[in-house]
Each structure stands twice: as C-alpha cells, then as structure tokens.
Automatic annotation (TrEMBL):
Name the record gives this protein: Porphobilinogen deaminase
GO BP, sorted A to Z: protoporphyrinogen IX biosynthetic process
Cofactor details (free text): Binds 1 dipyrromethane group covalently.
The protein's assembly and partners: Monomer.
Organism (species): Polynucleobacter wuianus
Modified sites of kind S-(dipyrrolylmethanemethyl)cysteine: C252
E.C. code: 2.5.1.61
CDD domains named in the record: PBP2_EcHMBS_like (cd13646)
Domain Porphobilinogen deaminase N-terminal positions: 16-223
Pathway(s) it belongs to: Porphyrin-containing compound metabolism; protoporphyrin-IX biosynthesis; coproporphyrinogen-III from 5-aminolevulinate: step 2/4
High-level lineage: Bacteria, Pseudomonadati, Pseudomonadota, Betaproteobacteria, Burkholderiales
Similarity comment text for this entry: Belongs to the HMBS family.
Gene: hemC
Its job: Tetrapolymerization of the monopyrrole PBG into the hydroxymethylbilane pre-uroporphyrinogen in several discrete steps.
InterPro entries per record: HemC, Porphobilin_deaminase_cofac_BS, Porphobilin_deaminase_N, Porphobilinogen_deaminase_C, Porphobilinogen_deaminase_C_sf
UniProt enzyme class: transferase
Length: 321
C-alpha cells in the first residue's frame, strides 16, 4: 500500500507494535502509550516489544563516559528499521537532541512533574545532611549544583534503573539520592520523595518528565495516528529546551539544564551551563510570547546565544567525533 494513494481521511490502524526498554519505568511508559492508543483506536491490536539496550547493560560507569544519551535508544531504533516495531517510546530526556537521519520525534506527550526529587531514609532535605554525607547521582547537572551549594557533601555516582537506585539507597550505600520526580511518581514511589527541589537552582534536564515517541520518517501514517497524543504546552516547552541543548552540543558530558513552562501563550525558560565543580556557571532566563514550535525554538535559540555570549562554550568539552 502506498500512502500517497490513500484518501485524506486516514483509516484507523489495525496493529501497532511499541518498542520499549524493559525497565519497570520504560514498561510503565510503554503501557501508558498502549492504553492511550487502545482508547483512540479500539479495534487496533497494540503490542509491546520489550528490549534491553546498551545503556541498561553498562552499569559500572557514568553515562557521560560511555557514550551518552543515544545508548538508551539505539536498539529501539533498529527495531523500527527492521519493521519489528512501529513506534518507540522514550523518556524524552534520553532522546538525542539531533534525531538520526530517517527518524522523527513524532509525538510529545503531556509532561509529568519535571522537578528533581530528594530521596532519603534519614534526612528530610539536602539542608539537613551532615558534612561528608554521601549523595548519589550520576547527573553532572545535579552534581554541579550540589557542589556549588553544599561543598561539604560527598557526591557519588549512582547508576542503574530506578529500582536498583532505590535499593542502593536502602542498603545504606548513600545517605540520600537525587532522582527525577517523574519516574518515582509513575512507579507509585512518590511517597519516598522527602523534598522537591525547586527549579531555581535545581533546573531539570531538557525534556525531563516528558514522553517522546519516535517513528521512522518514512511512515507518515504513524505520525498522524499519534497526533492526538501530542500535548501542545509540553511540545512547546521541550522544543525550546531541546533547542538550547542542541545549540550547546546536546551531550551529557557537560552540566546543562533547560526548563521551560508555557502557559496561555507565554513562555518562560531557565537554562544553565556549568562546570562539574559548580565553580563556573552561565545562566540565562528567557520570556516570550510563543504560539508555535517555531516561536519556542526561536526563544531557545536566543537563550543559547545568551549563554554562549557569557562564555558557555569554554565549559563544553570539545566534541571528538
Ligand atoms: N537519565 C535517566 C532517566 N531518564 C528519564 C528518567 C526519569 C523520568 C523522566 O525524566 O521522564 C531518568 C532517571 C532520573 O533522571 O532519575
């Protein structure tokens, strides 16, 4: 069947296969998309294809040292290319800023809480932690803010899926850990959150808390089928955030934060690039009327230029590819 020969009204899909990582969070997200699609297309058989990615296998090194964001999405993209799956569901935070040739970010769904969360069994907040307390995070962004604000704390790497991270905390390897609130909420672990970290200074990563659905560019029907799942305020916000990140190299080898909020035509954005020790920081805030993805990207571009004018490029390791 040739898509150019179909009429203007697209027929409902008959079968859709969702590629997903197999972690509990990824499966929750895939099942969420599955439920939304079943509701939209009651006659459609929606299946989930669970897969293990390199990012799930390499657990002994910081993500920034083993190749970054692409690690969690590559195997899923191969499944799309091979026709084993029609769409791949990702935490948008893990989706590279520049989509590989032949793939589209077809849909951005409504955002969960985008904040970072403080989780601990013994302490109610970062402020309560004593000198030398061990705080787990593998995010350079979180590390730089923590080092700047709390030089007396010991920041240590924390890898693995959410359940692994929580069990490392519960075994006493850390006094506290910092995680995205979104993942904890989705898995019913919100009660473990002792404090929500405010957007200033704990600005989240671009796309944090949002779900992105990736498809092959050459299957426009799937993009149309997914269109009703798009959430416009989230799409605008993450378009601005991802533009900032893209302009600044889009890697996770540098502490880089970008968070935007779109409300009734107006967008606010806050972004920083910093050194891991927290000693140097370039910080930019933006505010503009936004009524399209193009407007959102223009604001993201302006924020990136502001950061670069402050010398952000000096904080970014040279790309060696
Ligand atoms: N980098 C891993 C990752 N990718 C998405 C989430 C959480 C869920 C989300 O942000 O949507 C996490 C874990 C974390 O940062 O604690």
């Amino acid at each position: 069947m040739n898509s150019s020969s179909t009429s203007a009204t697209l027929e409902a899909p008959k079968r859709l296969v969702i590629a997903s990582r197999e972690s509990r969070l990824a499966m929750w997200q895939a099942e969420h998309v599955q439920a939304c699609l079943k509701k939209l297309y009651p006659g459609c058989d929606v299946q989930i294809l669970g897969m293990t990615t390199r990012g799930d296998q390499i657990l002994d090194r910081a993500l920034s040292k083993v190749g970054g964001k692409g690690l969690f999405v590559k195997e899923l993209e191969t499944a799309l290319e091979d026709g084993r799956a029609d769409l791949a569901v990702h935490s948008l935070k893990d989706v590279p800023m520049v989509m590989p040739e032949g793939f589209d970010l077809a849909c951005v769904m409504a955002r969960e809480d985008a904040r970072d969360a403080f989780v601990s069994n013994d302490y109610a907040s970062l402020e309560d932690l004593p000198k030398g307390a061990i705080v787990g995070t593998s995010s350079l962004r979180r590390e730089s803010v923590l080092r700047a604000k709390f030089p007396h704390l010991e920041i240590q790497a924390l890898r693995g899926n959410l359940d692994t991270r929580m069990s490392k905390l519960d075994r006493g390897e850390y006094q506290a850990i910092i995680l995205a609130a979104a993942g904890l909420k989705r898995l019913g672990l919100a009660s473990r959150i002792r404090a929500y970290l405010p957007y200033d200074p704990y600005t989240p990563a671009a796309g944090q808390g949002a779900l992105g659905i990736e498809t092959l560019s050459k299957h426009p029907n799937i993009k149309q089928w997914l269109a009703p799942l798009n959430d416009l305020p989230t799409l605008y916000a993450v378009s601005a955030e991802r533009m900032v990140s893209r302009q600044l190299g889009g890697s996770c080898e540098v502490p880089l934060a970008a968070y935007a909020l779109w409300d009734q035509g107006q967008m606010q954005i806050r972004s920083f690039v910093a050194s891991v020790d927290g000693k140097a920081i370039c910080l930019a805030n933006g505010n503009a009327k936004v009524q399209s993805v193009d407007d959102a990207e223009a604001l993201g571009l302006a924020v990136a230029k502001d950061l670069l004018a402050q010398g952000a490029a000096d904080l970014i390791p040279k790309i060696t590819k």
